[in-house]
Amino acid sequence: MNSYKKEILNKICYTELVYGRINKKLNLELSKDEIEKLIDIILSETDESEFQKKGKNIYIKNHERSIRLTINSYTNRIITADKLNEKTTNR
Q1: What does the radius of gyration of the chain's CA atoms come to, in whole angstroms?
Q2: pLDDT at position 86
Q3: What are 62's strand-pairing partners?
Q4: CB 66, CB 82: distance < 8 Å
Q5: Cβ atoms of residues 13 and 74 within 8 Å
Q6: Least confident stretch, 3-7, 13-17, 26-30, 85-89
Q7: What is the pLDDT of residues 45-77, one digit of tens each?
Q8: 3-class DSSP state for residue 62?
Q9: Angle between helices 16-26 and 32-45 (to 10 degrees)
Q10: pTM score, two decimals?
């Protein structure tokens, strides 16, 4: 099993569009800095076993916050964040 957590924490990057996408998908109104802090906290507190690579993406499920992050495994760029529900919990 590969260790993705440390690399993602060190190399995560963002696009301008992803800030709006994260606010929309999570129903938030956070600034860019607040979003980056939130993502950093989620990544830090999520156990390595919840980092799952499928294809070119890594999916990170944080059950305590009910959030799933999607990160491109080649660029370490965050793609989106989704609220976890019954359907996405088992993916």
Answers
A1: 12
A2: 61
A3: 67
A4: no
A5: no
A6: 85-89
A7: 999 999 999 999 999 999 999 999 999 999 999
A8: strand
A9: 70
A10: 0.90
The position carrying tokens 């860019």 is 32
What would the two tokens of residue 51 be?
């980092």
The DSSP H or E segment spanning 20 is helix 16-26
Starting at the edge strand found earlier in the chain, the sheet holding 78-83 runs 51-54, 57-62, 67-72, 78-83
User: What is the token pair recorded at 30?
Assistant: 């956070």
Tokens matching residue 91: 């993916």
- Which tokens is 4 given? 């993705």
What confidence category does residue 16 fall into, taking pLDDT thresholds of 50, 70 and 90?
very high
